[in-house]
């Protein structure tokens, strides 16, 4: 079925730097809110990077909302938006309006439409006053919000958050969580904070490149906590 709200990994194996980092992973992801946890280096970032074509599997298939990653890789960045831990890695342009205009151009608008569309796009998020602000003058939380707006204006079907809370204070984090909770998109969230998955439908625990546990967040978190405490 084309454009089905389904992400499918079928026997996916991926090596990086000569090591297997995802080992025969098969998953069907249909829920709206899905979390990923696991120790450092367990393969979380590698897995989500397969979904927008930043990485390509050595073997197996990746299908995202009807798009086969091997057949139409160019379609993936428009289907899967990414929010990274460090907004500075994502923001390219000196002003907020230029950054948003770039996203609109990526989404297929002409350069003129993109330039003219930046302020209305910001206004949809109540941030039209930011248009001419230099990006370097935004706080970390504001930069993170700019990244989210820049991704949302492209209207992706899936949004991946890769450790978005790491550098945010608690009030900023809570505001971001409220914003994420209201998104209509399918969301995949990588986080190390154990309370980041409240209201989530499903939590995957990755361990050494394999899915160690997959289920309701409370159950998976309890097992992960016990595992971490046994190691301490
Ligand atoms: N650019 C790279 N080149 C080679 N190997 C890499 C690269 N990036 C990650 N790896 C390796 O891939 C493995 C999985 O890394 P990945 O970033 O997917 O883990 P992660 O679970 O997201 O970790 P973290 O919680 O620390 O972000 C690790 O062993 C890591 O060393």
From TrEMBL:
SMART domains, A to Z: AAA
Domain ABC transporter: from-to ranges: 7-230
Coiled-coil regions, chain positions: none
InterPro entries according to UniProt: AAA+_ATPase (IPR003593), ABC_transporter-like_ATP-bd (IPR003439), ABC_transpr_CbiO/EcfA_su (IPR015856), ECF_ABC_transporter_ATP-bd (IPR050095), P-loop_NTPase (IPR027417)
GO MF annotation: an example: ATP binding
Keywords associated with the record: ATP-binding, Nucleotide-binding, Transport
Family of the protein in this entry: Belongs to the ABC transporter superfamily.
Membrane-crossing segments per the record: none
Name of this protein: ABC transporter ATP-binding protein
Pfam families: ABC_tran
Domain of life of the organism encoding this protein: Bacteria
């Amino acid at each position: 079925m084309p454009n089905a709200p389904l992400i499918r990994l079928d026997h996916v194996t991926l090596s990086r730097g000569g090591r297997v980092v995802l080992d025969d992973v098969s998953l069907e992801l249909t829920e709206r809110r899905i979390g990923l946890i696991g120790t450092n280096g367990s393969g979380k970032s590698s897995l989500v990077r397969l979904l927008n074509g930043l990485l390509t599997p050595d073997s197996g298939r990746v299908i995202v909302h009807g798009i086969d990653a091997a057949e139409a890789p160019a379609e993936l960045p428009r289907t899967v938006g990414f929010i990274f831990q460090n907004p500075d890695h994502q923001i390219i342009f000196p002003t907020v309006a230029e950054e948003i205009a770039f996203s609109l151009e990526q989404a297929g608008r002409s350069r003129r439409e993109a330039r003219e569309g930046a302020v209305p796009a910001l206004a949809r998020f109540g941030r039209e006053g930011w248009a001419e602000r230099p990006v370097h003058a935004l706080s970390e939380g504001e930069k993170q919000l700019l990244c989210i707006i820049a991704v949302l204006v492209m209207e992706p079907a899936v949004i991946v958050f890769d450790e978005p809370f790491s550098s945010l204070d608690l009030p900023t984090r809570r505001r971001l969580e409220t914003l994420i909770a209201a998104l209509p998109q399918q969301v995949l969230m990588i986080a190390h904070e154990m309370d980041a998955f409240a209201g989530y439908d499903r939590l995957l625990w990755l361990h050494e490149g394999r899915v160690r546990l997959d289920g309701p967040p409370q159950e998976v978190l309890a097992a992960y906590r016990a595992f971490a405490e046994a190691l301490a």
